[in-house]
Design brief:
The complex is a heterodimer of chains A (about 280) and B (about 300). Chain A has helices at about 1-40, 40-45, 60-65, 70-100, 105-115, 120-135, 140-165, 170-180, 185-195, 195-210, 215-220, 230-240, 245-265, 265-275. Chain A starts with a helix and ends in a 6-residue tail after the last helix. Helix content of chain A is about 80%, strand content about 0%. The model of chain A has no long low-confidence stretch (mean pLDDT about 85). Chain B has a single domain (about 50-295), classed as Orthogonal Bundle (MetI-like fold), CATH 1.10.3720. Chain B has 13 helices and two strands, in the order αββαααααααααααα. Chain B has helices at about 5-35, 55-60, 65-75, 80-95, 100-110, 115-125, 130-140, 150-180, 185-190, 195-225, 230-235, 245-255, 260-295; strands at about 40, 50. Classes of the chains: A mainly alpha (about 280), B mainly alpha (about 300).
Chain lengths: ~280, ~300
């Protein structure tokens, strides 16, 4: 009886780990393929497509950034991402303050509207926005893309910050008001300093979104020198199609920043992505 | 903050947000409605003219649009798969096997990789002479070495696999977050009563996860309508033989390749209508489940 119980536990453990290992292996397969290919020469790749590199080289990784295209696309992406995330976080924090902490009769309606806007398909907005930008001669400029990204991020970032601000103790705000602090003073010296983790969460989730965005970048940044990394990668792929290791090396460079950010700030990612769902 | 300023102060703080949202959401959506009823001209020599419902009649008769909608419906089939796998894997991880934190971190990685990267890498793996088929042939499964992205019948299922692969981590994280807030005594009680692993899932996990699963299902349904453009653009460009054209890609082609802005806008209105229905369903579900939770 005891022995059979132990056997059952052993079988259960094997099944548990077997399932987890199988799913993890599939989840990591592309990452594995990218990494091992990036350390192979083209010659080695032809004979050894999937195994570990027999003679690992860094020349492929260097070759993929030679010419400077990848480097410039990364800089372009960084510029667009940093600008729109900063702008959107600032604007969202301002708007979330009255929604979360003031007696505002319209507040819940504004919040409801923002929740609804989160699901609008971007392609639908892109059609008229393209016409507007073309009419204003603002195609192929960073400011257009930054404004559009900021606008599209705002429903999510405002919603998230507002729901966090709601958890700040009203007594604290009341006390500050009794001491004669104005709303701006309360916002700057009480609300924001208390919101470090929430702001970090909003920033990471937004950065991930902008960094990975493709459609708006394709439509509004058609000029070669303005391309973001995500469009650049599709160009890169067709340019080096016959040299798989170089393409994979490019993918490694493109993935590294986000992967490191994820590994460093895992809890912010996870908190941001689960926010608003757990309570139902 | 005196009473008089209380009334306009909130609006003052929200003003920049309202401005951005009006510019990127409200105005474009109004334009979209008006475009859908016009033949939109490209210049002063080709002015726009009102055409009534002609654009809608065009897409109603366009087999490519029907195919696009059908493909989005096919993508909906990813959602039940995602739900089942999320429940199973989050339950396994919730049992805290050794190294569960590492498994959780690794299983989440596909979700943070960018779609262009994922699309390009899978594009190579799934080629007819690609690494997947090389592997299958080496193992003796020559019959299974198919043209995954080049065969019109297979391309869409292959893309569905990639989408499930990428979105699963999100479901696992959501379910685990919810399970960790469920009292451990529920699971304990079920086990004391002699429930086996599947019965625990059936009678404890799934009921406890119901609100989370409903939320996840709706989010993913909306994703399958509104956020699959990048997969198609990177992996197939709608081919082979238009077999992977989804509604978003149809709109993109009509507007930016055929200059049929009115037709694209009409398709956009239809897409927006479907998303709205899903959104209303989500709000209704949330309210219903909130009542249920409050009891």
């Amino acid at each position: 009886m005891k022995a059979s119980k132990r056997t059952t536990a052993w079988v259960a453990g094997v099944l548990q780990h077997g399932t987890l290992l199988a799913f993890t292996a599939v989840a990591l397969l592309p990452l594995y393929f990218m990494l091992v290919s990036a350390f192979k020469t083209r010659d080695e790749f032809l004979g050894n497509q999937f195994g570990l590199p027999q003679t690992p080289v860094v020349s492929t990784l260097l070759q993929s950034i030679a010419g400077g295209d990848l480097y410039r696309w990364v800089l372009n992406s960084l510029l667009v991402t940093v600008a729109s995330v900063l702008l959107s976080t600032a604007v969202a924090a301002l708007a979330a303050f009255p929604i979360g902490l003031m007696k505002w009769r319209a507040g819940p309606y504004v919040l409801g509207l923002l929740i609804a806007l989160m699901v609008v398909p971007p392609i639908v907005l892109v059609i008229p926005l393209f016409q507007v930008a073309a009419g204003l001669r603002q195609l192929n400029t960073y400011q257009t893309v930054i404004v559009i990204y900021t606008g599209m991020l705002l429903p999510f970032s405002t919603f998230l910050l507002a729901s966090f601000f709601k958890t700040i103790s009203p007594a604290l705000i009341e006390a500050a008001r009794m001491d004669g602090a104005g709303s701006w003073r309360i916002f700057m010296s009480i609300v924001l300093p208390l919101s470090g983790p929430a702001l970090a969460t909003v920033v990471t989730v937004q950065a991930l979104w902008v960094w990975n965005e493709l459609l708006i970048a394709i439509v509004f940044l058609q000029d070669d020198s303005l391309r973001t990394l995500m469009i650049g990668l599709t160009v890169f792929n067709s340019r080096y199609r016959i040299d798989v290791p170089v393409v994979m090396a490019g993918m490694v460079w493109a993935t590294l920043p986000m992967l490191l950010l994820y590994l460093a700030g895992q809890r912010f990612f996870i908190r941001g992505l689960t926010a608003g769902s757990v309570k139902g | 903050m005196n009473d008089r300023s209380d009334r306009w102060l909130p609006w003052l703080y929200s003003l920049p947000m309202v401005g951005f949202v009006a510019l990127t959401f409200a105005y474009p959506m109004l334009c979209l409605l008006s475009y859908s009823l016009q033949h939109v001209g490209r210049s002063a020599y080709l002015p726009s003219r009102f055409v009534g419902l002609a654009n809608f009649r065009y897409i109603a008769a366009d087999s490519l649009f029907h195919g696009a909608i059908a493909n989005n419906l096919r993508l909906f089939l990813c959602v039940p798969v995602l739900l089942v796998l999320s429940v199973l894997l989050s339950q396994i991880l919730h049992d805290r096997p050794r190294g569960w934190k590492i498994y959780r971190s690794l299983l989440f990685i596909p979700y943070i990789l960018s779609i262009p990267v994922v699309g390009v890498v899978f594009g190579y793996l799934f080629q007819y002479q690609g690494q997947l088929n090389t592997g299958l042939r080496a193992l003796g499964f020559d019959g299974l070495a198919l043209d995954w992205l080049g065969n019109p019948g297979l391309a869409m299922p292959t893309i569905m696999f990639v989408i499930i692969w990428k979105e699963l981590g999100f479901g696992i994280i959501l379910c685990m977050a919810r399970l960790s807030s469920v009292g451990e005594h529920y699971f304990e009680a079920a086990r004391v009563d002699g429930a086996n692993w599947l019965q625990v899932i059936r009678f404890v996990t799934v009921p406890q996860l119901a609100p989370t699963l409903a939320f996840y299902a709706i989010v993913e349904l909306i994703n399958m309508l509104s956020w699959v453009f990048a997969y198609i653009y990177v992996m197939t460009l709608g081919g082979p033989q238009n077999s992977t054209v989804v509604t978003e890609f149809y709109i993109y082609q009509q507007v930016f390749q055929n200059s049929q802005i009115g037709v694209g806008a009409a398709a956009g209105v239809v897409l927006l209508g479907i998303v709205t229905v899903l959104l209303v369903t989500r709000q209704w579900l949330t309210r219903k489940l909130a009542v249920y939770e409050g009891e």
